[in-house]
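Lecture 7 notes: from sequence to structure.

We start with a single chain of 202 residues. Read the sequence below before looking at the structure.
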Amino acid sequence: MAIKEVYRQQTDHFNKKEVKHRIVSIDRPYIRPIVRGKENKRVEFGAKVNNIQIDGISFIEHHSFEAFNEGTRLKQCVEYQQSLTGVPVTRIGMDTIYANNENRKYCTENSITTNFVRKGPRPKDEPAEISSARRIIGNLRATVMEGSFGNQKQHYGVGRIAARNRRSETLQLFFGIHMANAATLAARQLAAELKAKEKKRA
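Now the structure, written as tokens:
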């Protein structure tokens, strides 16, 4: 089946037709080339994941083997976080891909402070705590969230998934991310127990 589809796609490509959902692997026909724009790895293959993070714990908001623009999913991220916690979102740290006009308007309307760089000159009457909050949110996103991605890839098998079909690959992705969460929670609990023991000794 995959070989027939590859033949059809290659025929269309030869005839200068647009080819969507192009197959790049015979044994894994569901994967697509995803352009990352990085110098050392411009194209990657596998699932693309849009994560949200609450207090250092990662949740998968959306994932797909097709390329998608995560910058259009801000509203879904906010709604997902609020459904998980029951607490209104007031601060978000995001990558620059989310800083489009629609997302800026949405955050302003919902009184959400972000780490977006302001457009135009800084207002003279802007409170100092707002600019300070933006800086802190941006630093936290760059260190905590980006650090968690590296941890998941290096220590929990998310960076190089060895599964050979869509379901197994998705399962391994979920296991990797949530095993990292479990390790983070276990470390916090251990630290709290040690602190409680020290208090008793004192």
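The radius of gyration is 21 Å. Keep this in mind for problem set 3.
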